[in-house]
Amino acid sequence: MSDFDVIVIGGGPVGENAAARTAAGGLKTALVEAERVGGECSYWACMPSKALLRPGHALAAARRVPGVPVGERLDPAAVLKRRNGFTSDWDDSGQVGWAEGAGLEVVRGRGRLVGERQVEVDGRVLTASRAVVVCTGSVPRIPKLPGLADVSYWTSREATSAQEVPTSLVVLGGGVVGVEMAQAWARLGSAVTLVVSGARPLPKFEDFAGDLVLDGLREDGVTVRTGVKATGVSTVDGDIALALSDGTSVAGAHLLVATGRQPATFDLGVEGFGFTAGDALPVDDTGRVDGVDWLYAAGDVTGRALLTHQGKYAARAVGTAIVTGATDPEPWTAPVATADHTAVPQVVFTDPEVASVGWTEAQAREAGLDIRVVDLDIAVAGSSLHADGYRGKARMIVDERRRTLVGVTFAGPDTAELVHAATIAIVGEVTVDRLWHAVPAYPTISEVWLRLLEAYGL
Ligand SMILES: Cc1cc2nc3c(=O)[nH]c(=O)nc-3n(C[C@H](O)[C@H](O)[C@H](O)COP(=O)(O)OP(=O)(O)OC[C@H]3O[C@@H](n4cnc5c(N)ncnc54)[C@H](O)[C@@H]3O)c2cc1C
Ligand SMILES: NC(=O)c1ccc[n+]([C@@H]2O[C@H](COP(=O)([O-])OP(=O)(O)OC[C@H]3O[C@@H](n4cnc5c(N)ncnc54)[C@H](O)[C@@H]3O)[C@@H](O)[C@H]2O)c1
């Protein structure tokens, strides 16, 4: 007799969703969590980072509209207090209560795969009759830099949970974590230097988006060093100094290493099933791990899309696949995460925001599609009403054969909410000819859709 039908290892947003889905399907489900139920996202990633960014954006937005009385600067104590509220002061009892209310048995401890359908948690072996689901997330990827191990550097955990504004901060890495945290702390009063190896930050996005974010960071007083690599780390007069490939160096009271993340498959027993610790678990679109019919995985640990919403989508597919026993379902059905391949939305919550879905121009060309790229400044009545001097850009990529969209990027203040329309257009495979009839309300920033279609030639 097994202890459970389903054991989920990792109680982040993805594990919570997979477990809630199997429990709702009538399966006895355990949720094994080593630290806090709610995972990285709730305590050291999405929630606290956005709570740190939002007040600075509100202040900047108010400054762009004459007649709104605004103060000179943010009140850091109030901002940090509000951020602490969003993490429940790093107390997960609320989320444990939610999990128990959803019918889950929360098991505290580190889970490890020790045999077929067997998970050891702190010396106790639990068995699952149906499936084990790995949702252990990811951990920071730390580069091998001489001297780095000898200093007390920050990762995203310290950058999102610090209780004081650092006097100065060096940020290594111009990905999403790097730009968001550079701007958040700069707007809270820190002297921030961002070190980026390419010509601009956000290399995974369209170039114009990285350029606009670069301008935004510089306007906030962030020193951005582009085109340089870090070569070593040392301590100078109590500060941490980063030596750079052009022979110069930068220093700050703290160093944030934001150079990417890697799947949390260490000390998990994956080697016993033919996988390598530190590598992603390879899964099919139902989340089933390659070659192991009772083992599933979802979220960051699969390396598919390191985003909370996409991980939760995969978790809903996994949960449905386990409950229904679907093994080879059709694409675009509930047990399949089909959208992972073509329609992943993401928002970079800087000011200006970057909101994108689907493929970049480079990705679409690499896929061999016959595409047409439509570029526009966001300059409609809605944007000029929204803010004086509004600056933004939009790109729409059309698959010329099917006359459907395969990628859209918006960059500009408050463009985040525009992206879901683009996601629906891509997932729904709506042709540009039909999209023409989706009339944007006047005067909203969404009117840029009309201008994009006109520029396409409709
Ligand atoms: C600074 C930052 C900001 C971000 N902002 C956003 C954002 O705004 N929007 C967005 O979509 N994404 C954002 N992300 C990405 C997002 O945080 C991740 O995609 C998301 O947390 C992945 O969820 P997950 O459940 O797969 O993993 P996690 O949230 O990492 O949760 C995994 C859980 O598994 C537990 N665990 C690990 N190993 C074991 C084990 N052996 N036994 C038991 N438990 C274990 C961990 O303790 C953890 O609680 C951000 C990331 C960072 C770093
Ligand atoms: N708003 C959001 O949705 C949000 C926010 C934060 C993080 N995330 C997700 O979390 C994941 C991790 O974010 P991240 O910013 O850590 O990773 P990332 O992969 O987005 O960026 C890491 C950056 O570091 C650079 N880099 C790598 N090694 C380097 C080195 N030795 N020196 C200098 N630069 C180096 C890379 O070129 C890259 O630009 C991302 O996939 C992202 O999607 C999402």
From TrEMBL:
Pfam families recorded: Pyr_redox_2, Pyr_redox_dim
Keywords noted in UniProt: FAD, Flavoprotein, NAD, Nucleotide-binding
Sites where the protein binds NAD(+): G173, G174, G175, V176, V177, G178, V179, E180, G260
InterPro entries, sorted: Class-I_Pyr_Nuc-Dis_Oxidored, FAD/NAD-bd_sf, FAD/NAD-binding_dom, FAD/NAD-linked_Rdtase_dimer_sf, Pyr_nuc-diS_OxRdtase, Pyr_nucl-diS_OxRdtase_dimer
Gene3D superfamilies: 3.30.390.30, FAD/NAD(P)-binding domain
Disulphide linkage map: C41-C46
FAD/NAD(P)-binding domain mapped to chain residues: 4-309
Domain Pyridine nucleotide-disulphide oxidoreductase dimerisation: 344-449
Note describing how the cofactor binds: Binds 1 FAD per subunit.
Signal peptide extent: none
Record-listed FAD binding positions: K50, G111, T136, G137, S138, D300
SUPFAM superfamilies from the UniProt entry: FAD/NAD(P)-binding domain, FAD/NAD-linked reductases, dimerisation (C-terminal) domain
Keyword Flavoprotein among record annotations: yes
The keyword Transferase is assigned to this record: no
Co-factor requirement: FAD
A GO term for molecular function: dihydrolipoyl dehydrogenase (NADH) activity
GO biological process: 2-oxoglutarate metabolic process
Family statement: Belongs to the class-I pyridine nucleotide-disulfide oxidoreductase family.
PANTHER family: DIHYDROLIPOYL DEHYDROGENASE, MITOCHONDRIAL (PTHR22912:SF151), DISULFIDE OXIDOREDUCTASE (PTHR22912)
Name used for this protein in its record: Pyridine nucleotide-disulfide oxidoreductase dimerization region
Organism: Saccharothrix espanaensis (strain ATCC 51144 / DSM 44229 / JCM 9112 / NBRC 15066 / NRRL 15764)
